[in-house]
Q: What sequence folds into this?
């Protein structure tokens, strides 16, 4: 039987890991079709970016979904082309999910209660945003 979360930090860890796992799992289910992403039946996913849909302009995270889907299907070059931070964020999410599971099994202190983990996540987020801004400016 799975024990319930023991502290708010543990609950945040589990919620974050569940969201990351869902995003990674969805990336594996979706199918890369050139410059678009499709459902397994071939129908297009649709508009993924509100900024692009409303303003006809890229945002710093434009291309991240396509990057994740390409990477989940083993296309590293395409993933980097869609968003240079895609592989970084993808790997960070995988590591986070694995670390949450490990700390939960070992009943170690929650990850998100540790300043070093928060600092690492902040660095990944800032690097992703910076790479996205550079990509946005160049396009």
A:
């Amino acid at each position: 039987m799975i024990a319930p979360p023991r502290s708010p930090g543990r609950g945040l860890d589990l919620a974050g890991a569940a969201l990351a796992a869902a995003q990674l799992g969805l990336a594996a289910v979706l199918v890369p079709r050139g410059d678009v992403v499709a459902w397994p039946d071939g129908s297009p996913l649709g508009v993924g970016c509100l900024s692009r849909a409303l303003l006809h302009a890229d945002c710093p995270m434009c291309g991240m979904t396509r990057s994740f889907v390409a990477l989940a299907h083993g296309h590293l070059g395409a993933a980097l082309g869609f968003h240079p931070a895609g592989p970084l964020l993808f790997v960070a999410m995988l590591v986070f999910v694995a670390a949450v599971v490990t700390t939960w099994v070992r009943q170690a202190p929650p990850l998100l209660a540790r300043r070093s983990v928060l600092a690492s996540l902040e660095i990944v987020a800032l690097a992703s945003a910076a790479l996205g801004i550079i990509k946005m400016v160049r396009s």
